């Protein structure tokens, strides 16, 4: 169950860039990295444009927790890996990326949609 408010979801969804940080083993936050984020229903999702070997993605998986900042919202989050086999949800996330980011062109949007991108999908759960 999401703990995002409607206002938070709307504000994050309206901006193109989200800043994301994972928690270090000592409990401090790593520096923010800028990525794209989409909303599907009452949930927020991110993907690694450069696959599951991208350093921010690997740190997020390892830590399981972090922070996001976007649209004037800053929240602690849990990172939940999404099963690539959840086809309907993965396709809905693809569609949300297309709607929000296609104005950048296929060369830019291509790495965050499709079966390969499904392998690096994380849901951002507000804490």
Sum up the structure in keywords.
single chain; 127 residues; alpha+beta; 5 helices; 7 strands; globular
Characterise this structure:
By secondary structure, the chain is of the alpha+beta class. It has five helices and seven strands. It has a seven-stranded antiparallel beta sheet. The termini are close together. The relative contact order is 0.23. The model has no long low-confidence stretch (mean pLDDT 95).
Task: Provide a quick synopsis of the model.
The protein contains five helices and seven strands; from the N terminus they run H-E-E-E-E-H-E-E-H-H-H-E.
Q: Number of helical segments? A: 5
Average predicted confidence as pLDDT: 95
Based on the structure, what is the oligomeric state of the protein chains? Answer: single chain
Number of strands: 7
Amino- and carboxy-terminal Cα gap? 11 Å
Task: Give the neighbour order of strands across the main sheet.
Answer: 2-1-5-6-7-4-3
User: What does the largest sheet look like?
Assistant: 7 strands, antiparallel
* Helix-strand pattern: HEEEEHEEHHHE
The percentage of residues in β strands lies in 25-35%
Overall radius of gyration: 13 Å
Low-confidence stretches: none
Fraction of residues in helix: 25-40%
Shape call = globular
Structural class designation: alpha+beta
């Amino acid at each position: 169950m999401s703990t995002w408010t409607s206002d938070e979801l709307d504000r994050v969804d309206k901006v193109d860039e989200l800043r994301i940080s994972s928690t270090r083993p000592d409990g401090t936050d790593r520096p923010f990295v800028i990525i794209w984020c989409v909303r599907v229903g009452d949930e927020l999702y991110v993907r690694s444009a450069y696959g599951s070997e991208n350093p921010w993605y690997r740190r997020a998986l390892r830590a399981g927790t972090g922070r996001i900042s976007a649209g004037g919202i800053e929240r602690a989050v849990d990172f939940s890996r999404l099963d690539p086999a959840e086809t309907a949800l993965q396709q809905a996330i693809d569609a949300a990326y297309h709607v929000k980011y296609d104005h950048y062109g296929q060369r830019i949007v291509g790495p965050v949609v499709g079966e390969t991108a499904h392998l690096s999908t994380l849901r951002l759960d507000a804490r």
